[in-house]
Write a structure and sequence with these properties.
The chain has 110 residues and is mainly β. It has one domain: Jelly Rolls (Sandwich). It has no helices and 7 strands. Strands 1-6-3-4 form a 4-stranded antiparallel beta sheet, with no helix packed on it. The chain has a 3-stranded antiparallel beta sheet with strand order 5-2-7, with no helix packed on it. A hairpin with a 6-residue loop joins strand 3 and strand 4. It is elongated, with a radius of gyration of 15 Å.
């Protein structure tokens, strides 16, 4: 997932929350990490923040997981968010070696 958000003007950003679905039975996995970076011109991005994401229980029930980056205190107009897909189902999964899905439902910027 690669999303760039234009806030229309420079804003103070203190927290970013992203929602993801995890449903191993449907081959939907959480991202391995989320990378957030900021820009004032939409061309050069800095203040990169990397959020490592852990999987839930193997073949557990489907659930929604929120990933957060707090205490940012960054003034920016553009926010770039990259959620890195696992890519292939792990060895323990019935679809081992098959391609995984990444589902996100919302991005909250405070």
């Amino acid at each position: 997932m690669d999303v760039t958000i234009d806030l229309s003007k420079k804003e103070q950003v203190s927290k970013i929350t992203l929602g993801f679905l995890e449903s191993h039975g449907s081959w939907i996995f959480l991202p391995t990490e989320v990378i957030v970076s900021f820009s004032n011109d939409g061309l050069s991005y800095n203040n990169k923040t990397i959020i490592n994401v852990s999987d839930g229980k193997q073949n557990g029930t489907a659930n929604r997981v929120e990933v957060e980056s707090e205490n940012l205190k960054i003034l920016a107009r553009y926010i770039k968010i990259e959620a890195i897909n696992r890519g292939i189902c792990p060895n323990w999964h019935p679809g081992a070696g098959g391609k995984t899905w990444l589902f996100s439902d919302e991005i909250i910027i405070e």
